């Protein structure tokens, strides 16, 4: 039978103290609701329904059309939230998992085991629970003497004895779908918050002598919900450790994992070494046997095999095999470096393509340009690409040599095997195999200082 999922994401998240909608806050570079969706899909659930609250247009836009969304007009509790899908789902066969949008750490492996347990036991409802020595704030799992689930009691409604219970609900459930929506009609708001609690469905089903189970996940950290910035930081730490462990198991060397920041979608080849303080973000791919030093930040880029990046920033760029970048260089978006290229200290590259073995060793700006293979760009060279209104390109052929402190005023073409004399300002095309000198002849005024004084 089909299993679908309802994600509860209508909470305002006031404790986040943010203009950003709660479930769009990122954990290791990915919005927490996207973690939940991704884990559901990895667990085999593709039919996903989301309950949002007011001001959620940004979430709807982010999720796109592949996810069903609806609005909970009033925040009247979790049972009321699930009922927003009653007209659509009440008569469907199969099972429905209900999960909170602020629980990004529940892994696909746990979700699969949870579903398997539910189906294996044949229960009408199964609770994902865990055990903690610090249960404050969580709904407690109240069991009968035979170990079966009797009910879930919320913190504010619990007795002193019930508050001592260490098994807590994660807020994630699986129900027989028809049973869920039939029971929702019987939920009332006779509680301290005057809300319609989804856990009350458990008590209703027990009164009907329906089978209710709880699957205890051994890792309490997986069930952590994120309600404020402290919890967000804790979740980031847990997930970062999970991500880094997986990379190390796949053959990546992290010199100091606790000080290495890698987003979830990053892919890294074996034998690559990453030093403490490196930040690797977004959809970045790093090849085999690369080296990323401390102080480097890479985002949404493709880094080839054997590349070395030292104390540099790389954004939305491609770096070919064996290329060396840095120290203290910046590759801005749409930069593309070929194989065995050298980008040295204090070089900035923007929207430029450098062919194999090209060299820009230090103190240069290469923007809106194409640099031919094996060309050597001298210290202090600037491609003058902007006239205050428009951007223009500089084209340099292969095996060219650009002398130090040259200004290449775009649009301009420098031919293959051409030389530009140091200190030149080039405004006209330079043909292949040519030498261009564009500077005033030196004038020396002997005794100038004595004359003025």
Automatic annotation (TrEMBL):
Instruction: Cite the active-site annotation.
Output: 362 (proton acceptor)
What Enzyme Commission number(s) appear in the record? Answer: 2.7.7.23, 2.3.1.157
Q: Which InterPro entries match?
A: Bifunctional_GlmU, GlmU-like, GlmU_C_LbH, Hexapep, Hexapep_transf_CS, NTP_transferase_dom, Nucleotide-diphossugar_trans, Trimer_LpxA-like_sf
User: What are the GO MF terms of this UniProt record?
Assistant: glucosamine-1-phosphate N-acetyltransferase activity; magnesium ion binding; UDP-N-acetylglucosamine diphosphorylase activity
Reaction catalysed by this enzyme: N-acetyl-alpha-D-glucosamine 1-phosphate + UTP + H(+) = UDP-N-acetyl-alpha-D-glucosamine + diphosphate; alpha-D-glucosamine 1-phosphate + acetyl-CoA = N-acetyl-alpha-D-glucosamine 1-phosphate + CoA + H(+)
Residue positions annotated to bind acetyl-CoA are 385-386, 422, 439
Region feature N-acetyltransferase, mapped onto this chain: 251-453
Would the keyword RNA-binding turn up in this protein's UniProt record?
no
**Compartments where located:** Cytoplasm
The UniProt annotation places UDP-N-acetyl-alpha-D-glucosamine binding at: 8-11, 22, 72, 77-78, 139, 154, 227, 332, 350, 365, 376
Q: What is this protein called?
A: Bifunctional protein GlmU
Organism annotation: Salinicoccus cyprini
């Amino acid at each position: 039978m089909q299993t679908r999922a309802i994600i509860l994401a209508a909470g305002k998240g006031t404790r986040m103290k943010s203009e950003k909608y709660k479930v769009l806050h990122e954990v290791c570079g990915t919005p927490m609701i996207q973690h939940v969706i991704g884990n559901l899909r990895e667990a085999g659930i593709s039919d996903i329904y989301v309950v949002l609250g007011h001001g959620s247009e940004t979430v709807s836009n982010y999720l796109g059309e592949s996810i069903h969304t609806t609005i909970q007009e009033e925040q009247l509790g979790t049972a009321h939230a699930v009922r927003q899908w009653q007209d659509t789902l009440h008569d469907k066969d199969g099972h429905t998992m209900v999960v909170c949008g602020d629980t990004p750490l529940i892994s696909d492996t746990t979700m699969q085991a949870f579903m398997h347990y539910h189906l294996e036991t044949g229960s009408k409802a199964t609770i994902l629970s865990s055990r903690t020595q610090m249960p404050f704030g969580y709904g407690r799992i109240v069991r009968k003497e035979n170990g079966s689930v009797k009910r879930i009691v919320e913190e504010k409604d619990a007795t002193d004895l019930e508050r001592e219970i260490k098994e807590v609900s994660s807020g994630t459930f699986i129900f027989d779908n028809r049973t869920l929506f039939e029971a929702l009609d019987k939920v009332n708001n006779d509680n301290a918050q005057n809300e319609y609690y989804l856990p009350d469905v458990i008590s209703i089903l027990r009164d009907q002598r329906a089978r209710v189970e709880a699957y205890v996940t051994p890792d309490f950290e997986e069930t952590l919900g994120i309600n404020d910035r402290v919890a967000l930081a804790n979740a980031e730490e847990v997930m970062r450790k999970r991500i880094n462990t997986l990379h190390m198991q796949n053959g990546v060397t992290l010199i100091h994992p606790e000080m290495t920041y890698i987003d979830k979608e990053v892919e890294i080849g074996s034998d690559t070494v990453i030093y403490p303080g490196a930040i690797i973000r977004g959809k970045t791919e790093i090849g085999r046997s690369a080296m990323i030093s401390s102080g480097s930040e890479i985002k949404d880029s493709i880094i080839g095999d054997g590349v070395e990046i030292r104390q540099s920033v790389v954004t939305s760029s491609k770096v070919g095999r064996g290329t060396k970048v840095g120290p203290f260089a910046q590759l801005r978006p749409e930069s593309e470096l070929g194989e065995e290229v050298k980008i040295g200290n204090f070089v900035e590259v923007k929207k430029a393509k450098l062919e194999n073995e090209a060299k820009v060793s230090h103190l240069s700006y290469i923007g809106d340009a194409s640099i031919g293979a094996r060309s050597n760009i001298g210290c202090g060279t600037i491609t003058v690409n902007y006239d205050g209104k428009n951007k223009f390109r500089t084209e340099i052929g292969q095996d060219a040599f650009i002398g130090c402190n040259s200004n290449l005023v775009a649009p301009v073409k420098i031919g293959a095997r051409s030389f530009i004399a140091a200190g030149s300002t080039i405004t006209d095309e330079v043909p292949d195999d040519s030498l261009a000198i564009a500077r005033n002849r030196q004038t020396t005024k002997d005794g100038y200082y004595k004359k003025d004084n």
